[in-house]
Specification:
Layout (H helix, E strand, L loop, with lengths): L1 E3 L2 E4 L5 E2 L3 E2 L16 H11 L9 H18 L7 H19 L8 H15 L9 H4 L3 H11 L8 H25 L1
Antiparallel strand pairs: 1-2, 3-4
Length: 186
């Protein structure tokens, strides 16, 4: 049994949110990190801002609050965003798709549902795309393009010149280690 700050004790299985992991906390209300936000971060932040109680924010107000946080990441990365309306629609679509999966009861879950859940997991783990379709044409800086490319694929950010220095340092270290091994063999 886990103690709950808002009420009676809950079992650990009840404190998990289907498809999202541990229950939503106040820490989920703030998106942090050095990369563009993922779908998980977006949806957890939205669920934190819209708990469903009386006087809670509407879905649109919660989405606007999350968008203000996400906008900072895109601004720092020098990546243009779609319009506010388009971004809000994408966020609402994400939460609606997740809610649709969460509403499927345990008894009705099948292999098709498992595939849908796996697809949603992949969507949530990836960078949440709020850039326009022609974003590559809008970005002039090659470092910003490299950062965007990494966010679209494996989410390993690049640091331009620092990456080149680090790569050179690693290469020298490997060459030195190979030379030391060769000298030991003689």
């Amino acid at each position: 049994m886990l103690p709950s700050p808002t009420g009676p004790c809950q079992t650990s299985s009840r404190s998990l949110v289907f498809g999202l992991g541990p229950s939503i906390t106040s820490e989920d209300g703030i998106i942090t990190g050095a990369k563009l936000p993922t779908g998980h971060q977006i949806i957890r932040c939205m669920l934190n801002k819209k708990p469903g109680a009386n006087g809670a924010l509407s879905q649109f107000e919660a989405t606007k609050g999350v968008l203000e946080q996400v906008r900072l990441f895109y601004k720092k990365a020098n990546i243009p965003m779609v319009s506010d309306k388009g971004a809000c629609h994408k966020m609402v679509d994400l939460i609606n798709a997740n809610n649709k999966l969460r509403k499927i009861s345990q008894a009705k879950r099948s292999s098709e549902t498992a595939k849908q859940l796996e697809k949603m997991e992949c969507r949530l783990d990836a960078t949440f795309p709020l850039w326009p379709p022609n974003v590559e044409k809008l970005i002039d800086n090659p470092e910003d393009l490299a950062f965007l490319a990494s966010m679209k694929t494996d989410r390993v950010a690049t640091c331009g010149v620092l990456d080149k220095k680090l790569q050179l340092k690693v290469k020298r270290r490997e060459e030195h280690q190979a030379a030391v091994k060769r000298s030991w063999r003689r």
